[in-house]
User: Fold these one by one.
Assistant:
Number 1:
Amino acid sequence: MLVLASSSPRRATLLREGGYPFAVVKASVTEELPEGILPATGVRQLAIRKAEAGLTHWLELGGDSQDVVLGADTMVVLDAQILGKPATLVEAETMLTRLSGRTHVVLTGVALISGSGRLKADVVETVVQFRQLGSDEIQAYVAGGEPMDKAGAYGIQGEAGKFVASIQGSLTNVIGLPMEYLSEQLKAWGIEQTNIASREVDDGLSTFEGFTGGTPTP
Ligand SMILES: Cc1cn([C@H]2C[C@H](O)[C@@H](COP(=O)(O)OP(=O)(O)OP(=O)(O)O)O2)c(=O)[nH]c1=O
C-alpha cells in the first residue's frame, strides 16, 4: 500500500487524480538546511526527511513494514538561491518581483521508503519562465492570499498560471509531485494505479510550449 507523508492538499489531489489509492500520514519535520547547501541536495534531503518521519509515524500507527511511504519537497530556485514559502505578504511581493521577467527552476525532491530499509530518492527539475509582471498585478495577487503556503510565492495551478510565459518539464512537478517520474517509480515498487480519475485542476498549461514531461536529475 502507498502512504503519502504530507499535509499538502495539492499532493493528495495529484495522487488521487493519478488513480492511486493511498493513505495519508503527517510528517512534521524541520525544513531547515545547512547554510550553502546545493538546492538539489537540500530538496532531496528534505524529501527523505519527510518520508522517514512519515514511515516512523505510520509504523507507530500499526502500518505494515512492506508499505511504501512517499515524501516530497518542492522549492523554487532563482540565481542559485532557494525561494521557499514566504513568511510575510511583503516577502511574497519581493519574491514575485524578483521572478518577474525571469526564468527560474522548480525542484521537487521525491523519496520512497519502506520499513524493510529500501529507499529511492531523486530530484526532478522544471524550468519556468515568467513574463514581466506589473507591480499592481503582483500586489493584487498577493492580496488574494494564494502565495502564502507555496514555494516561490505562487501557484501555477491557480491565478499565477497567467504569469507563466513558458514551461519546460513536468507541470505537476511544479505543483508538488512529478507524476510522470513517480508513476514509473511506483511501478517498480509494485504500486499500480487502480483507476484513472479525470483531472480536477483545469489549468490549461499542459499545452504550453516546451512541455516535455519530467526528467530526473542526479
Ligand atoms: C511553485 C509552486 C509551489 N506549490 C506548492 C507545492 C508545495 O505544497 C509547496 C511547497 O512546500 P513543501 O514544503 O514542498 O510542501 P508542503 O509544506 O506544502 O507540504 P508537506 O511538506 O506536508 O508535503 O508549494 C504549488 O502548489 N504551486 C506552485 O506553482
Number 2:
Amino acid sequence: MRPAGSTEPAGADVELDASDVTALAVRTEGLTKRFRSGQLAVDGIGLRVPRGSVYGFLGPNGSGKTTTIRMLLGLVRPTSGVAWLLGEPMPDGAGHVLPRVGALVEGPAFHPYLGGRANLARLDASDATADPRTARRRSDEALERVGLTAAASKPYRQYSLGMKQRLGLAAALLRPRELLVLDEPTNGLDPQGTREVRLLIRELADAGTTVLVSSHLLTEIEQVCTHLGIMGRGKLLVQGERQVLTERGVARVTVTTAGEQVGAAAEVLTGLGLAEVLADGVTLHALLGATAPEEVSAAIVNAGLDLVGLQVRRPSLEELFVELTGEGFDVAR
Ligand SMILES: Nc1ncnc2c1ncn2[C@@H]1O[C@H](COP(=O)(O)OP(=O)(O)OP(=O)(O)O)[C@@H](O)[C@H]1O
C-alpha cells in the first residue's frame, strides 16, 4: 500500500493495461476538479477499486467524495486526470459502461406526484435495454429489496428523507449491475435502515457486484468494506485493504518502572531507537516502530532496571483516520 494518488502520472496519456481492466472496477489517475469558484474539490487522486470489492470511500464532509463520484459517473467534467469504469474511459465510454453501473447520487430525478412504483416504472421505461414485459416485476422486486413495498403508491413528495434514499437505492437496483456506486446511502436512515443498507450491500457483494460506497460516518459502513479509501481536503490520503489499514496504525508502548528509574529507562528506550519517548510519572510512553515489545522488556531488564509493566496499543481505525485527515469523524450514534 502507498499513499494514494501521489506517485503516478496524471493525464490522458496513461494507458490502462490488460490486468487493470480485469482486476479493477474503478481506476483514476490524477483526477482533479477545480470549480469555477476556484475551489479545488478533488486534488489529483488515484483510485483503485478492485472488482468484487466493497470499497468504502470515506472522509469528512466536504472532503471531495461526491465530486469524485460525480466525475466517475460523467456528471461533472474533471479539470484534469482520467477515470475508467469497468475498463472503459469516462466520460467517453459512458454509453457503453453506464448501463452496467447502478448509481445512487444526490437528487435523483423522481417525480414528486408519482408513487415509488410509478417512479421506478418511468425510469425503467427510459432504459432502452430493459424488457417491457417484465417491467412490473423489476420495480416490485427493487421496492421489496429496499423495504418500500408498503409505500409503493405513496407520492414521492410525501416520502421521508429515508424513504427517498431507499427509492434511490431501488432505482440503482432495477437491473443487475456489475458495479454499484452509492453516495452516502445511509443518509437520513435510522439505525435499522442503516443496518438494512449494510445487509443489502453485503448481499449484492456476495452475488458478485462491486460496490463503491461513500460515507462520512466511518462506523456505519466500515464493517461491510473489504477496502477503504480515505479522503481529506480533496486528496486521497490512503487506500487499501481494510485489514491492512487496520494493522497499519503505529503501535505505542507504555513502560512502567520503579519511580526513580524513569530517567534511566527513558535512555534505554531512546537507545533502542524508539521515538517520542515521554515520561508521565513512573510511566514512559513511546512509539514502538519496528521494535518488538520483547526487545523493549529485554533491554530494560538487561540495564538492571525493574520492569513493572509493559503495554502495547495500536490505534483504532478511527484514530488512524483522525490522524490522517486531521479532522474528527462523526461517530455514528
Ligand atoms: N458546484 C460546486 N461549486 C463550487 N464548489 C463546490 C461545488 N460542489 C462542491 N463544491 C465544494 O467542493 C468541496 C468538496 O465537496 P464534495 O461535495 O465533493 O464533498 P463530500 O466529501 O462529498 O462532502 P459531504 O460528505 O458533505 O457530501 C466542498 O468544499 C464543496 O463546498
